Amino acid sequence: MLLSEVGEFGLIERIRKICPGYGNRIILGIGDDAAIVESQSGRSLILTTDALVEGVHFDLRYVPLDSLGWKALAVNLSDVAAMGGAPICCLITVAIPECWNVERFELLYQGIIQCGERYQCPIAGGDTVKSPSSSFISVSVLGEAQAGEIKKRSGARSGDLLCVTGELGGARVGLEVLRAGEDESDFYTKSISRFLKPIPRIAESQKLISELSVTSMIDISDGLASEIRHLCKASGLGCRLFGDRIPVSDETVRWAQKNGISPLEIALESGEEYELLFTVDPIILNRKTHEYSSKQTGLFSIIGEMRPQSEGLQIRDGSRARTMANKGWDHYLSGMSIG
Amino acid sequence: MLLSEVGEFGLIERIRKICPGYGNRIILGIGDDAAIVESQSGRSLILTTDALVEGVHFDLRYVPLDSLGWKALAVNLSDVAAMGGAPICCLITVAIPECWNVERFELLYQGIIQCGERYQCPIAGGDTVKSPSSSFISVSVLGEAQAGEIKKRSGARSGDLLCVTGELGGARVGLEVLRAGEDESDFYTKSISRFLKPIPRIAESQKLISELSVTSMIDISDGLASEIRHLCKASGLGCRLFGDRIPVSDETVRWAQKNGISPLEIALESGEEYELLFTVDPIILNRKTHEYSSKQTGLFSIIGEMRPQSEGLQIRDGSRARTMANKGWDHYLSGMSIG
Given A25, A102, A109, which is nearest B89 (Cβ)? Predict the structure, then answer.
């Protein structure tokens, strides 16, 4: 059977099935943003890893090496944030072709170090190996959280409000502008920065957990629509999405209009956004409305409501309601992917 | 500056220099077999990662996929053993070309799972991505040890005896026999198994630490000579090696004689042996001589004595004493490496 027939998520399912039980120490294994390992003193360890491959996840013709280094670590920090944790340290594995010079290698590392300093995640070790062709970066991050504050994607309850931090679409726009080498990149600086140097929402995650007791959380690496699907599936629920409340960045709206694409579709499908998607009890949120009334647009937006599984995934766009298209994000289904 | 001019260890040194301080939690960072992170309750966390790249570290024409999976995890477990720890769990990152079918992928995973079950290191998560050409496996292992039982490579003292577990040379012989596709592979089954499915010395490490209070430890991934050099450098010492006491496997002696190579040179330079090289106080070892007199050849051999740095690295081979050649193991200096 070809890999393209089962896809990335199919492969993950198959691995999960052939893996034996986790034993006592692994509280959460394959299938969430990160793994959780029991530790002493009521704290849990968080482990996550993500790899970026040249020609699949990045193209060095328009991605500077220091941005690449930053991003390789940031995407892992985003997974730690999505579990409700803070990073402790990271391991960096780099495979590089012999034609690279030392300066290129160090530029890559400077990006990793810059991101690690910004988010207090020092490099504890790693491996540097030769690659016969493409370059490859694999980062693993160790993090931790109070055991009770771990946020799985499976914790949402029917009636919870679905929320997302920030504004969506910029990562896709940034990639498209860079890829096209357009002269007007000056109009899309925020989007380009968002694509090249994503901001992991670690501080935001801590704030949301302590102030709003969020019930589930996931980060948007594969696109909003795809992540909502993951969250619904893991929680055994459906969802009603308010299309007109999904926050789309100004630059995304401008680029979408220019290219005759719906901004909403970009916001739903753009991968690598690294915002937090989470659910919260409406009673708790209502109680805090006065605190969030001014901040709400800044920190997060309420974009939907969790519903029983039987209702499926509905999106209300203006006066129309439709079932959300099942477009996943999958490196084995897409050709040259942006994720 | 070209990568080949600085080499792998030169690159590690450069990374170490540009990395900022580790903060309070990282007790041991870049430069040992694994990183050590402070944990609660007197326990330390051990983090290590190692990558294998097709065409650099393995050749699928003679390495079965399940062996490759086993080995990818085993080499990391060997690093955990070298620190004196036991594994908790692992993360698996695999980059594979689209032409692979699902069965190949699962065979690779079965090898990983088999090794993980044997050494109690379940898979906690990972990442599966597409590679445009060669396949690539990166494994990270989280382990732990009592804080006082962590064994660095820097702990040796002048006068300590230098010891090594097992018998050396088989990994090199196994690789050569497989690579040559020789008909006589039946004569080298132990060597082939040693190359394809190395045994991480986790139980041996625990036993040596509790019974002999070893002062430093390192595993032999880059060859005995190279690892002795690392241990000496980290401990600020020299070493006098007893060439005739270095344990060489029977198959290595046979293969070496047939090919007109010195068995001792193979034992000194063969990479991927994954035995433990360690130092121990001679007073403690003498006190236990009666316990080890019968087992000694089985569990470990005394192969040298740590000396002041000024004496350098000497090897006594029969009646001759010579300075050990500075042949390192380096993916950037060697062409198609076996390490």
Answer: A25
Mutate to test the interface with B, among A59, A89, A112, A332 (most CBs of B within 10 A): A89
| CA distance linking residue B206 with residue B214, whole number of Å | 10
Crossing angle (nearest 10°) for helices A189-196 and A170-180: 100
- Contact call for residues B262 and B320 (beta carbons, < 8 A): no
Residues of chain B found within 8 Å of residue A107, distances taken between Cβ atoms = none
Tokens representing A196 are 């090249």
Comparing CB atoms, the residue among A8, A19, A47 nearest residue B128 is A8
Cβ atoms B68, B136 nearer than 8 A: no
Report phi then psi at A224, rounded to 5: -55, -50
* pLDDT value for B15: 75
Say what the pTM is.
0.90
Sheet holding A237-242, edge to edge: A216-219, A276-280, A161-165, A300-308, A237-242, A313-317, A320-323
Inter-chain CB proximity B95 and A136 less than 8 Å: yes
- pLDDT score, position B298: 67
pLDDT tens track for B264-298: 999 999 999 999 999 999 999 888 766 665 555 56
Cross-chain CB nearest to B41 (options A41, A55, A103): A41
Q: Looking at residue A185, what is its pLDDT? A: 78
Whether pLDDT at B70 is above 90: yes
Residue B16: count of CB within 10 angstroms of its CB: 12
Sheet strands (E) in chain B: 26-28, 35-38, 43-53, 86-96, 123-130, 136-146, 161-165, 216-219, 237-242, 276-280, 300-308, 313-317, 320-323
Q: In chain A, positions 300-329, which contact chain B (CB-CB < 8 Å)?
A: none
The one-character DSSP state at A160 is: P
Q: What pLDDT, in 10s, does the model give residues B212-262?
A: 999 999 999 999 999 999 999 999 999 999 999 999 999 999 999 999 999
The residues in B 140-159 lying below 8 A from A, measured between CB atoms, are: 140, 142
Give the separation between CA B305 and CA A323, rounded to whole angstroms. Answer: 74
Burial of B2 (0-12, 13-18, 19+ CB in 10 A): exposed
Q: A86: closest CA among A42, A50, A44?
A: A44
Of A25-39, A56-70, A205-219, B309-323, which gets the smallest average pLDDT?
Answer: A25-39
Do the Cβ atoms of A129 and B29 come closer than 8 Å?
Answer: no
Judged by CB atoms closer than 8 Å, whether chains meet at B124 and A47 is answered as yes
Under DSSP, the state recorded for A321 is: E
User: Would you say residue A66 has pLDDT above 90?
Assistant: yes
- Write out pLDDT tens, residues A271-309: 999 999 999 999 998 887 666 655 555 689 999 999 999
pLDDT, residue B268, reads: 95
CA proximity to B51, closest of B4, B106, B87, B94? B94
Q: Which residues pair with A308 in a beta bridge?
A: A237
**pLDDT tens digit string along A104-159?**
999 999 999 999 999 999 998 889 899 998 999 999 999 999 888 889 999 999 99
State the DSSP string of A94-121.
EEE-TT-BHHHHHHHHHHHHHHHHHTT-
Distance CA B306, CA B313 (A): 9
Amino acid at A242: F
Residue B66 pLDDT > 90, yes or no? yes
Is residue A129 less than 8 Å (CB to CB) from chain B? Answer: yes
CB-nearest to B123 from A2, A30, A136 is A30
